Amino acid sequence: MKILLVEDDDALIAALTRSLTAQHYIVDAVKDGEKGWLYGSTFEYDLAILDLMLPKLDGIRLCQRFRSEGYTLPILLLTSQDSSTAKVQGLDAGADDFVVKPFDAAELIARIRALVRRGSANPLPLLTWGDLHLNPSTCEVTYGGQPLTLTTKEYDLLELLMRQTHHVFSSDEILDRLWSSEAFPAESTVRSHVRRLRQKLLAVGAPSDFISTLHGRGYYLKLPDQPDHAPLTGSSIARLPQRIAPETGRPVTTERATEQLNDQSLHSASHPTPRPAGYLNDREPSKADQQAQYLAFLNTTWLNNQPRCLEQATLLLDKAQQLQSQVATPVEPATASHSIADLSDLPNDQQEAHFAAHKLAGTLSIFGLTQAMQMARYLEERFKCPTLTIVDLQEMSALAAQLQSMIQEVHHIEAVQPQERLSQWLMINPETDWDAALTLAAHHQGVDLELVPSLDAAQTWLDRASAANSLPKLILLRLNALPTTAILTFLQTCAHRSPRLPVVLLGECDAWRDRLEILRCGGRWLPEPTLTPEQILASATRFLGDTLTDTKVMIVDDDPAWLQTLPQLLRPWGFCATTLAEPEQFWPVLQTVNPDVLILDVNLPQINGLELCQILRSDPRWRRLPILFLSILSDPATQNQAFTAGADDYLCKPVRGKDLATRILNRLQRIRDQAS
Amino acid sequence: MASKRVLIIDDEETIQTVVQFGIRLAAGWDVITASSGPIGISTAQAEHPDVILLDVMMPEMDGISTFKILQSQPETEHIPVIFLTAKAQAAERRQFQDLGVSGVITKPFNSLDLPEQIAKILYWQLEV
């Protein structure tokens, strides 16, 4: 059972979290009402505990907000006022119960149990399923009178299954319900907990399928004495309704709510992207899922922040106009007008505008609204100028007005902004004479240069970078003698590890034989004596031209074996692959990943690849996205259909990694050629 | 890697909220927040975080002054500090490095990438 605790008193948070955790509850604690809303509307909770007095949004208003948005989760209010007015107010706001501080932890927990029970499909204090008994008050579990010793998570899992016995819980759902929003275990964790729980149940005489698996759906408790009876109701029907649609007053299940959001995201971009499920990222199973969750959080936060951002932009406009009216006659901007003053010397209006612009730029940056952020930054700088002319101020007013309308038009944060990173290079420099000059030159060229003194150090560094999936864009190796066997082996290892990562050797190497040897081992050569550190770095950039690290490939295929294999096949070429097994999640995943290339299977459940391709080709945003089909179907008719639907290329399974990479690279090269 | 505690000192509350959410989501680390230099210093003294993310430009006490005080206090001098700043120019970066700051992260950033970036700057081993 997962509880949201909204309380601003640290000591009380610590004490309550301790007591609740001891009773197997998972607690997410936040310290103000706004955050309470953000967490409550982002994650799923079985109950919320709200303090009445909270910063930003008090408990009553937060409670009202949950109810007006259709959230039906049980809400318990904590208050220090023992007056009937406060209680009536709280209950009228939609709270289910009231506890007055100071309170007895045991009483609070008993009330929580009662509230959870009321919302549960099983309203009895003792949970029973056949011979299995679970007592939530004492946390005791028995099967046929025999006690079971369970770990916390095993107990939590069993309680969850027993509270909603007609529900099939997917692994995703179990992760959502039993782990705090700060923990992100893999799906395999659920499997291992289920396995261990089954073993323990088996040991006390329960049937081996007491916890049954509905293939592709999830886990449920099999009906006692009806061994072959799967649950009567599907997961979407049996699920406890968490939201009531405000427009109809009718309950909607979480799955339905997600579907609705998905439908909306197909037609418009004005709603937060729902958390897509069922797809894997090559690098880390939960990475794409996290991105979607983060994006949804950004969208909710943006909705709360947009009015304030608008106010700040309006203030900037007002201040620029006010200052404009104070300047009597137009003056040509002088050079001095761009000098930076000590802020305290500026008129109050200017100081205020400067800080508003600074805050606005900060806020916009966190949402990835780069263009608006740059405008705010520019205004921030301009408001620092001590002698603004009327021309400056006219320009600033126009800019502030533009910024205002730009903010007004942002209804949806569409993508999580990629991290702006310096290009990282690794350099093996056995002699330290150049270290300082190289570092300086790298700074000037926007290169994050990692210097190591030896091949061994480079190898260690690369192992670590490879494990963190952050290989450098280029490796420079300075020779102080002729290439040795160790160097050639190093080149071969690098070529094997990442065939498209350029390794450039610097140094005197006049013999053709040596140069040829370097080339054969995958290296490039750059003569050093004529070059300065700046020239070396500048010359080395030309070797970067054909690297495609960070190229994002999205693969849609319902065959799990291919979904596992393809990212591995593509990894040596530096592609970052995201795989998706369920086409119904296609749209949110596509928008989140924003791939450079899409690989589609032809036969997919629900929507086939050809249909997806046609939809994309009719959408201006995705019309130019390179689409490659990869299918077991090798007949000319299907291939023809694919090309008619708008495919750029068609490959038949099985395919070799090298062939697939080459076809992707060719397609990307063609696009680059067209663009240039 | 054991869970880490991050203190973010930034006067912009939205940044605090989003960074806190992003870091918790991506790495499960504990994130504590402070909205000014003086509050940040006392929080650092009381909470002993593993790293401090410090906004460079804040009203009243800016990031550089805050950093200098943190460095001068025995309870906080050992805590690595990473500056959060709008696009830092090379000269500014050098100035920060000369001060003894552990690293610089430029805004805008994706909060989900922060744990990885912090780990890289501080040579922490992230679980992959």
Please tell me about this protein's structure:
The complex is a heterodimer of chains A (676) and B (128). Mean pLDDT of chain A is 76; it is low at 226-285 and 330-341. In chain A, 46% of the residues lie in helices and 15% in strands. In chain A, strand 20, helix 20 and strand 21 form a beta-alpha-beta unit. In chain A, the strands form six sheets. Chain A has a six-stranded mixed β-sheet, sandwiched between helices. Chain A is an alpha/beta fold and 676 residues long. Chain A is globular. Chain A starts with a strand and ends with a helix. Chain B has five helices and five strands; from the N terminus they run E-H-E-H-E-H-E-H-E-H. In chain B, strand 4 (81-86), helix 4 and strand 5 (103-107) form a beta-alpha-beta unit. In chain B, helix 2 packs parallel to helix 3. The A-B interface holds A 34-35, 38, 181-184, 284, 290-291, 293-294, 297-298, 301, 305, 355, 358-359, 361-363, 365-368, 370, 373, 377, 416-420, 443-444, 467-470 and B 10-12, 14-15, 17-19, 21-22, 24-26, 28, 55, 57, 59, 86, 90, 93-94, 106-113, 116-117, 119-120, 126, 128.
Describe this protein with a few key phrases.
heterodimer; A: 676 residues; alpha/beta; 5-stranded parallel sheet; 46% helix; globular; B: 128 residues
SSE layout and pairing:
The complex is a heterodimer of chains A (676) and B (128).
Chain A (H helix, E strand, L loop, with lengths): L1 E5 L3 H13 L3 E5 L2 H10 L4 E5 L7 H10 L6 E5 L4 H9 L4 E4 L4 H15 L7 E3 L2 E4 L4 E4 L2 E2 L4 H12 L7 H8 L8 H17 L7 E4 L3 E4 L13 H4 L4 E2 L6 E2 L1 H14 L11 E3 L5 H40 L21 H19 L3 H13 L7 H20 L13 E6 L6 H10 L2 E6 L2 H13 L6 E5 L6 H13 L5 E4 L5 H9 L2 E4 L6 H8 L10 E6 L3 H11 L4 E6 L5 H8 L3 E4 L8 H9 L9 E5 L4 H10 L3 E4 L4 H19 L1
Parallel strand pairs in A: 1-2, 1-3, 3-4, 4-5, 15-16, 15-17, 17-18, 18-19, 20-21, 20-22, 22-23, 23-24
Antiparallel strand pairs in A: 6-7, 7-8, 8-9, 10-11, 12-13, 14-21
Chain B lengths: L4 E5 L3 H15 L2 E5 L2 H11 L3 E5 L7 H10 L8 E6 L3 H10 L3 E5 L6 H9 L6
Helix pairs in contact in B: 2-3
